[in-house]
Amino acid sequence: MTKTTAPEAPVARVLPLLSLPHLDRPFDYAVPAKFADSAQPGTRVRVKFAGRLTDAIVLERRADTDYDGALSDIRQVITAEPVHTPEISTLIEAVATRYAGFRGDLWRLAVPPRHARAEAAELERRDVAWESLGPEISLPELDGWDEFVFGRSFANAVIGGQTVRAAWQLQPNAQWETRLAELAVHTAVGGGGVLIVVPHQRMVDRVAEALTQFVSAKQVTILNHDAGHETRYRRFLRILFGGGRIVVGTRSAAWAPIQNLRLTVLVDDGDDQHNEPRAPYPHMREVLALRSTITGAAFMIAGYGRTAETAAWVQQQWLHDLVPTAETMQRSMPIIRTLDDSEVVLGRDSSLARSRFPGAVFASIKHTLAAEQPVLVQVPRRGYIPVLSCRSCGTPARCRHCHGPLGMPKKGPDQGSGSAAPTCRWCGRIDPHYSCPSCGSSSLRPIVMGAERTAEELGRAFPGVPVTASSDDHVKATVPEGARLVIATPGAEPIADGGYGAAIIADTWALLNRQDLRAHERALAHWMGAAALVRSEAEHGQVIVIGESDNPAITALQHWDAASAAQAELNIRQQALFPPAVLMAAIDGSNPAIDELLAVAELPAEAELLGPVELPPGVRPPAGADPGLHGPTLRLLIRVPRAQSKVLGHALRSAQIIRAAQQDRLPLRVQIDPPAIG
Question: Does residue 346 surpass a pLDDT of 80?
């Protein structure tokens, strides 16, 4: 060691924040004397690595090193604040093992880039206590938790700091944001930290609004990807310093360094927004479950629907059911009717000659509008006519250039009314001379009517009634009271003041027939979410479902029994050996790339290889893949018992490290429990 190094613990073991798998390990650097106090474990520094300056995290300070040569010096301390907390470090290690990922990738998800001005501002107020950020807090009552079986006992256990975990089934017209706010405020006043993760910004706003009934806006910290660079780092530091005791946000909030975490909540765990799109692709359900295990914090999954993964945890008694009482259900449920859309029923309804809706639907809408109440119509797709098929043989219409689905957009204002020519929804090419590759017919028919076409149809049927459209490209948060038609896609339904008088759930088959392992559970969750916005039976609220009455998902909706539906889905997955009954890894790449990985991967003896098979059109290949050079993108599935999750994660992680050290390696993507299997 030179004389310029720190007098005590002169060696810093650091983790470079790089995306190279074979460099996901600690390296030793000398600590110059000027950084003796600032380069502490958890701080972010800059080191010279492979000839260039690289950001790194200090993992520990040591008195000696195992390296034989002279150590390079730490070049700069980016910030003396320890952004690397022991709890988040342990969580990152656990997630990296679970998803065969690398710590550098996860650190970039967990810790936002430094912003000097934000850091200076937060350092000035780091000693400000959370309690002093607002007026004196009036603790809310917990009577609302009596609406659930053992709900009050659960709430008291959370507030008391016990490690309790629950699958929270919401009832119609549930004021779940208020219930969460009550529990969060009690926990925070007792000195505990609260983390609430929701799928999208609309829910963030709703939860934050509920919390500000009891605490000030400054006592609620919001974390999401939409916040600017400075704002996000400022809020991150506020949480780190203890001033952010209640944190609400989307998936980026799952990594918030909350002190004394006592309660973690995930809302609607089946929503796709909880899937991290960047490597190693963790799901927030697993991240929060691991965090609950590490910290001993209470954990709750809340939602109208229920996933098979949640059902598996309930079956294992890792989660316990938290369901509404019979009295609560009787008081809150609307009437739910099913209109069978079989050929027999449709053939008897003369109104279908001019509309796809049965006459009973128009009668219900007319009655509700006459009572000056809004009507919600849920349709499965946005656009005008988003999906087409051959009128003769029923073959789905696909683009001849990219194989994307053909639809019919609405004509522009200068083109008259109706739909335009068939247009590809992927590449945008127009195909006015389409012919079916199966039978040669040039005649097309709509498979699904979009939100725009539905709004146009109902607008003509009820002239003078305001029509509001809400879909994923233009979502309305709320609609006022009064007679109004609201056409919305699943998940984009606005909240109506006082509730909807009626809801129509159309084209149920479109969601049920999706080529997706989760089609039925997501369809049920979407329908329950829409039905939950309707007034109770006592207020004459009704839901009309257009679909097959004997379909299990529709039956579960009528009985408001997502738990049994999820258990039935889990039973099917267990018989078919699909997740979550087993752990599955998807390896995407060319055939030579997959062979490279298998050659070095020490897979567990129980591992079963399925495939590889060619990925369907539209599935994105790994970054850097060139199908023209290496062949088509293939997918290999590796299936193991869930007890082997750590073994499989370690094996795939090690194999990627070995491949990363090779020259001219072919691109490959590894995902554990991918959102889509096929």
Answer: no
